[in-house]
Amino acid sequence: MSAIDYSKDHPEYYERMVAAYLIGFSVTKEDLETYPHLKFATGESDTGCIVSWNTEGQKNVETNAHNVVVMPNTISINPLNWKLDDTYAPASENLGSLVFNEKAEEYEIKDIGADAQVVPGRGVVVTNANFPASEMTEYFGPDSFHEDEYQIYYNNIKDNVAKRIAAYKR
Q1: Nearest to residue 49, comparing CAs of 24, 19, 70?
Q2: Judging by DSSP bridges, how do beta strands 74-75 and 97-101 pair with one another?
Q3: Of 25, 43, 65, 92, which has the maximum CB count within 10 A?
């Protein structure tokens, strides 16, 4: 039995679930229609929901580049303002990115200018982050951040997890 079937047959599952963070995984409108018991996040503190986005740079969006992880009709939530629409969130709303400091040989929290805006027609979050795009261009397009989505929005994800747990405990 798959996790989707289990959750469909056991609605109490969602009463115990804070959130499923499926970052970098496409959740489509058809998925939600096929499995109506699944709920996509609509804000920063709802619970029993799926939280997901795929992060790309402007070049992928402008050229409609092929990206194997972005399916048609994908839904993404903005990891800075937790909205589903195209409301722009400036980099000043980013609480910090996790970046490897090669000189110190350790990770540190830095401001890399990572803003965020959902592009509903493509189903992705676009950023102008000062961060190297994926080198796997044949899979993700010339301007994808698929391999670093957690790191780019690291402190916002941590903050969001805390808010959803607090909402769950109420």
Answers
A1: 19
A2: unpaired
A3: 65
pLDDT in tens, 38-79: 899 999 999 999 999 999 999 999 999 999 999 999 999 999
Question: Beta strand 49-51 with 19-21: parallel, antiparallel or unpaired?
Answer: parallel
8-state DSSP, 16: H
Q: What is the dihedral of CA 54, 116, 77, 131, to 10 degrees?
A: 30
CA distance 91 to 93: 5
Nearest alpha carbon to residue 55 among 137, 152, 170, 130: 152
* pTM of this structure: 0.91
Number of domains the chain contains = 1
Q: How far apart are CA 49 and CA 19, in angstroms?
A: 5
Angle at alpha carbon of residue 160, lines to 159 and 161, rounded to 5°? 95
Domain with 26 in it:
3-169
Q: Token digits for 59?
A: 């070049």
List the one residue out of 90, 124, 96 whose CA is nearest residue 108: 96
